[in-house]
Amino acid sequence: MSTLIPFGDAFVTQLFTQDSSNPLLDTPVDSSSLSAVLDSLYKTTDALHEQLFNNICDNVDIFSASYEQMNELTQRVTSLVGQAMTEQSNVIDPTMGTHAVVSHALRRYTAALETSQQHQTQLDSLRVLVTLVEALEDIESILDQQQIVPATEALLRLQANLTANEPYLAHTVHWVRERIEQQKNRLVCILQDFLAAAITFETNRVKIITTGCSDPSPSLLLSLSSSSNDTSGVDLKDVFGCLDQLQLLTTHMSTIKRSMFKHIIKPYLEFDVTADVVVTKDGSKGATLTLRPTTDKQINPLRKLKNLGQILDFCFENLCGADLDHARLFGNLALPELFGLVIEKVLGPAIPTTSKDLGTFGAVSRAAESLEQTSRDHFGWSEKENSLKEYVSHLDRHFARKRGEKVLLEGRNVMLRRLYDVEDAEEEEEKKEKEGEGMGKAGTETQHYRITQTPQLLVLLLTDMIQEASGLVNTHPISAAHLVHATADLLDLYRAIMPSYHRAHLIARPANCLVFRNDCFWIARQLQHKLGASAASAAAAACSAANISATTQPTNTTSSLFPDLAKRLCDEAEQLRLLGNWWAQLAFEQQMHRINLLLERLDGFVTIADHRQRQQCDEAIGGIIGQVRNFSDEARPVLDRRLFVETMARLVDRLLIRLIRMIEDIVDIGAEESELISRSLNSVAQLVSTFDLPGHDATEPEVMARVGSWQKFWLLKDMLEMTMKDIMEAWRRGSLGMFTVEEMCSLVCALFADTDRREAVLDEIKSGRVESVVQEVHSVTPPITVESRRWKDEPVNSNDTPTDLADTDEQDGWGWDEADENIFVETGEENVSEPMPDLEINTEEGWGDADEDLFVADEMHK
């Protein structure tokens, strides 16, 4: 029973609190316990009913009084709400409501206020406009009296007033501005008139009066007045002040500056004769500057600089007055251009062109520095642009440029002369002779050849440059270095101009090419020996002078200048030799081209049995001999004896090799053809005379000693008329050792029919059995010249011979262009020219696309 009481309390608590989290309610109970709980609940309910009734009875009076009071309040609230709704309807009524009335009243008030403000604005605008119009009338009246200073000040005040009162002039501001602009334009015109009356430029035309002229009128006039009748007492400084306030002074000062340069400065600096500056004072009213030509013939830069200083003083005193701002403005406008003209027209031409005149430039330098300093003091100019002091301080550099340009111009004038007269040239060359197996005594030989005057003048010019550079190396190192470098420029110019400008002359005849080759080699020798020695002595003298001087120390550039020059001269000499060899090779290849065209007419001797073809072969052989003889006649007078013989040997050797190959290429040679070919080739013996030298006729043994294929050619010519027996006997003796086995087999097959005997002969030839040693076929007579012994013992490879083009693959030939395609006349025949075995044309430098067809491609015979 004790456990049921808490259970009932928990249930009642749950009803009041709606809290089901009490775990006691989850306790299971039986029916009797539940009935007991319900009985307890009923009792509790009855107790609560009773308590509630007692509470109501106790408080019923209070409730009744409160209810009546609340009912009265409710009625009053309802009445107030009704009144409020009535008032609301009265207020929001669109016709008679309070809101409508108030809104109408506000609109009327606003309209009245706006009208009042508009009227006030109009009144204010009228007051301002009246003030501005009165000011405009005052300005107009002042301008009528040409009082520029008050007019300017009034105009500026009027513009400031207009800016401040612009909100009051919404509809009339444009009209007022137009009126102000009209008055401003009028004021500017008056100022311009005053300025034109105060500053006068006369006579745009430069008139030079010669000595004794009866009316030496001034050629140029500038008049500046500080006070004159034309300007009605207006001072020039007042005019400038008004323009400055109107922000127009820079524009008008620029106009004055342009007129000054147009009428005074530029004509003065460009005069071909001298002129004096004459300044005439007109009391306190102003001054006049006049340029008067003088009778002096020589233009003196010192006088020009002095007169320019007078012109600037005149401008400072009369144009700018004491106003530093005006002076500074004029200086900033005029001085940069003026100093540029001074550098171009006065200082530049005054730079000496020779080292001996360098000392005379000191006075000019001091005058230029004084002119610049005076200009800076007067006009307050501090910019570095076109500084005269900076320019004259680099005299060394300017002299170097001017001297280098003059040297190149002189060299160019020499190179452009079309004078091709040749002169004899001699030079000593060291030589060594062999005696027995050892080297014999050494000596010199004199080479005689011909050159033009151009290389001699060029070398004289180069010598003067090196000597002049050696004298300047310690005092003017930049000039010395520039002159040294100009030597290479001059030689580059020679290699560029000569082959191109004189190209038509050079390719006209082989002798011209060979003379040009001599010119190049002569200059190269002078560069290496004479000029190289001058460079070495100049280097020694420069170092000695530098060591003696206490103030001058040789710089690294100075000490290495002349040794570098010697090396550079050697490089230039090598370039000149390459250029000469190219043109000598051109003459050689031109001749070979003509010879190959004639060889093509032989048609390989295949149809020589035909009478017409035999006649054509004879004519072709005669033409070939004539070509070689013509080349010999042209080369002999201009080349050295040794080089002439070597050149002719190369030409004849190439010709004979071609003839040998033509004969060896014949597949079948009959007896008649052999005889005819042999007879036609007999005239080749005339080529011996092409080796003749002055005072000495060449002999066949001498030619054989120089031409490698000479003996082989005549052996082949003899084989054409020999029997098989004779050929084999000569083979066994070793007389035909010049022929290879393949050549012997080919000749035997072409000359003789296919028989068992021929097969036996071929087998013997292929076996290579020779019964006896090789014997000397010809004895050699004394050589053509005293140098022939060395020619026999030594290979042909001197500094003066045209080198193989394959050895100059990395160099350029100079002077070749597209026009080289037409060096030779087109014949329409197949390519027949035979190239030299060592000829390789460089495709990287010096040769263009046109050079691919320079010579007709030769048929290669391997």
TrEMBL record:
Domain annotation ZW10 C-terminal helical: ranges: 621-764
Biased composition (Acidic residues): 806-815
Source organism superkingdom: Eukaryota
Pfam families for this protein: ZW10_C2, Zw10_middle
Residues annotated as domain Centromere/kinetochore protein zw10 middle: 223-415
Disordered, as annotated region: 788-815, 827-849
GO cellular component, one term: RZZ complex
Signal peptide (residue range): none
Entry's Gene Ontology BP terms: endoplasmic reticulum to Golgi vesicle-mediated transport; mitotic spindle assembly checkpoint signaling
Protein name: Retrograde transport protein Dsl1 C-terminal domain-containing protein
Lineage of the organism: Eukaryota, Fungi, Fungi incertae sedis, Mucoromycota, Mucoromycotina
